[in-house]
Structures are given as structure tokens and as C-alpha cells.
Amino acid sequence: MSSFLQLAFVLAIIILAAKLGGYLSTRIGQPSVFGELLVGLLLGPSLIDLTHLSFITDIHLGETISQLGELGVLLLMFLAGLELDLRDLMGSSKVSAFSGTLGVILPVGLGLLAGELTGMNFHHAVFLGLTLGATSVSISAQTLMEMKVLRSRVGLGLLGAAVFDDILVILLLSFYLALQGDGSGFLAILLVIGKMILFFALSIAFGVWLLPRLMRQTARLNISQGVISLAIVILLFYGLAAEIIGGMAAITGTFLAGLMFSRTPESDEIKGGLHALAYSFFVPVFFIGIGLSVNVKELDPSALWITLMIILIAILGKTLGAGLGAYLGRFSMLESLQLGIGMVSRGEVGLIVAKVGLDQGLLSPALFSAIVGMVLVTTLVTPPMLRAAFRVPKPPPAVTEPEG
After folding, report:
1. CB-CB neighbours of 341 under 10 Å
2. Residues 6 or more apart from 170 whose CB is under 8 A from it?
3. Which DSSP helix (H) or strand (E) runs through 301?
4. Which residues lie below 8 Å from residue 148, measured CB to CB, with a gap of 6+?
5. Hey, which family's this protein in (predicted)?
6. What does pTM read for this prediction?
7. Spatial distance between the Cα atoms of 377 and 315, rounded to a whole number of angstroms
8. What is the rounded distance in angstroms from the CA atom of residue 388 to the CA atom of residue 29?
């Protein structure tokens, strides 16, 4: 079987399994993403190992699937931004700042404290904290979109908090790595901050002044699906710019691109075209790909208690930290809980931070294994926890007795 036929076979299985898992998940009252994540775990090396079956000889097949999945998460976050109004998101900036900041500080502090109390090497404890501070909001964004509450106060606050979270984790990571370098730590931090500011300035300037004109000109041209094609090109460039210029996650760039496109008259056309493309192909590959990248068999049994401790800190740290930030921003207790739960998933962002620590020799293999377990569990539990939190009935408004 040729490499192309192997790819076609694996993609067919992935998409079919994703849709079946999503359907069964909705039948038991859970978001479809929960079923897709579980199916991915079953198809991965933990059980079936789809990309390494006996007749699969292409050694690059797993990497190809992973890259297609990365396109899926970029499209997912672009569509999340496209659903929102920039003015509404700016209106929740106070909540986003508080939640994003406290949602990083508390888990990082708890991780560092837990590492010190359990006798970990200081560098390991620091990187454990940094990994716990990361958030991957793509899982929560998909769940909120399914429940049709992405435009709610909680949805707006959650997505804004994720941007603050990304910025703060990158700054802390850069700061720590710079201190391990050649003594130019302060200059390195200034460079990181300057690159972030430059990215946001260029992205917003392009989105506000040039993008509407470019879209109008493209819409007038006799090009098949020209508007949608241009949207794909620009969202990919935003993702590239976020990584290369801003030093941030590409999903932050594509989310910002979606916000910029939401201001254009062509936003509905783009939404319809990309929604079909994303959810019929790329997004299922992304969610299944998360399971394909994790091998439960490789988790270190001797580090089970450390894994359980990290999982507990990961869930409580984000829920309490981001939730407290939302409460300080004048959210109700229920809304604060919902936002805090939405920040729990670490997903691919947590793995990226942990991989940096492993490559730099600042994480032990056993601790990295425990972190992988934490990332897997937090990714799996976030959708059902979020669904349950939104099912809690709101308290009735207080009734004031008439005077006299």
C-alpha cells in the first residue's frame, strides 16, 4: 500500500471514528468533543495504535496527521474569534485581565510549592509550575460553541483570559530561561515584551485599516471562493506572525485574526465556508490527534502519586485562580466557577511548555511523564465539567419588599 493510500485509510478511520464518538457523547448528554477525545485515546498507542498497524509502513504518517490537526486548531480558534464582536471582548477586559493573571499565578505558585515540599530539584519545581500555568482554551471554546454560549459573558471573559494567560506564561518562561543564560536576562525580557507589543500593534493595525479594504477588493473580483481563500491565507499569516514575531502560540494569532474578520461585511460568508471545511475534516483530526499523541502505557507507575498530586493542583489551581479573578471582575459566583473550569484544560500548550523543560534538561523524564498524564486528564475532564457547570440553574433575582 502506497504512502498516500495509507494516509487516506487513516484519515477515513479518524473522521468516521470522530463523528461516531461525538454522536455517542451527545447521546449521554456530553459535548461531542469529549467523545472525540476518548476515541482518539483508543485509536492511539494506548490501545490500537492506528498509525503503527502492521501494514502502515510510512514512518512520517503520524507527523502528517499531527500537522493536519494543528491546522484544525488554528481554524477552530479563528472561528471562535469570528463569532465574537471586538467591542464586546474589550468590554470584558477587566475580567479577562484578572482571570488570566490569577489563573497563572496561583497554579504556578502551587506547583512550585508542591515541588519544593516533595523534595524536587528547584528547576524541576519551577517548570512544573510553569506547565500548570499554561492553558489551552481550544477545548473549552469548542464546548462553549456547541452549547451556544460562546458570546455570553463567560465565553467572552474566558477567551480574553486565555490571551492574558498566554502572554504571562510566555513572559515567565522567557524570564526563567533568560536567567539560565549568559547574564543578559533583563535585555532578553525586554526583547520578549517588545516582540509581543510589535505583534499586537501590527496585527491590529492591519486588521483595522487594511483588511476591510482588501476584503472589498477581493469580493469584487471574479475568483472562485476568493473571499474564503483570502481569509485562510490571512489567518495562517496571523498564526505565523504570532509565533515568529510575538513569540506566542499560533492559536492566539488566528483567534485575533477571527476578531478582525468579524468586523467585515463578509464575515458571514467566511463563517459558512470555513465552518464546513473545519468541522468536516480538520477539527476532528485535531481532537483525535490529541489521543494519538499520548501513550498511557508510557506513564511511569512509580510516579502515580506525583501524577495525582499534579492533576489535583492543575484542576483546583485554574478553577480557583481564574475563578477568583472573574469574581473580582464582578462576575457572579456561578459565572466565576464556569470561567475557572473553562481554563482547566492544558492540551497542546501544556505539552509544549513541558517539552521545552525536557529538552533544556530542566525536567526529569519521570516528571515529564506525570505532566503528560495531567495534560491528558485535564483535557478529558474539562468538557463534561463545563457542561455540568452550565446546567446549574441560576439563582432567582432578589425580590425587594416595597417600602411603607
Report:
1. 28
2. 192, 196, 247, 248
3. none
4. none
5. Belongs to the monovalent cation:proton antiporter 2 (CPA2) transporter (TC 2.A.37) family.
6. 0.88
7. 9
8. 10
Say how far apart CA 237 and CA 250 lie, in whole Å.
Answer: 9
332 alpha carbon, distance to own chain's centre: 24
Residues in the chain: 404
- Mean pLDDT for the stretch of residues 221-243: 95
Q: Which amino acid belongs to residue 159?
A: L
Residue 33 makes CB contacts below 8 A (sequence gap 6+) with: 22, 25, 139, 142, 143, 146, 287, 383
**pLDDT digit string (tens) for 14-26?**
999 999 999 999 9
pLDDT of residue 349: 76
Residues 6+ apart with CB under 8 A from 318: 103, 106, 107, 132, 135, 340, 343, 344
Is there a contact between 168 and 55 (Cβ–Cβ < 8 Å)?
Answer: no
> Is residue 253 a contact partner of residue 240, using CB atoms and an 8 Å limit?
yes
Q: Who contacts 106 (Cβ-Cβ below 8 Å, separation ≥6)?
A: 317, 318, 320, 321, 324
- CA dist., res. 342 & res. 203, Å (int): 26
- Quick one: 272 exposed, middle or buried, by C-beta within 10 A (0-12, 13-18, 19+)? exposed
Cell representation of residue 311: 492533576
In one-letter notation, the amino acid at residue 211 is L
Q: For residue 4, what is its C-alpha cell?
A: 498516500
* Per-residue CA distances from 146 to 142, 162, 313, 391, 396 (Å): 6, 19, 28, 14, 26
What pLDDT is recorded for position 395?
Answer: 61
What is the grid cell recorded at 317?
A: 489551581
Domains assigned to the chain: 3-391 (1.20.1530.20)
Beta strands (DSSP E) in 23-88 are: none
CA atoms within a 13 Å half-sphere pointing along the CA-CB vector of 173: 27
Q: Give the mean pLDDT of 136-150.
A: 91
| Closest by Cα among 311, 322, 300, 312 to 367 | 300
Comparing 1-15, 123-137, 180-194, 215-229, the range with the smallest average pLDDT is 180-194
Per the structure block, which three cell numbers stand in for 360? 533544556
**Are the beta carbons of 327 and 263 closer than 8 angstroms?**
no
**Does residue 401 surpass a pLDDT of 80?**
no
Could you tell me the three cell numbers for 243?
509565533
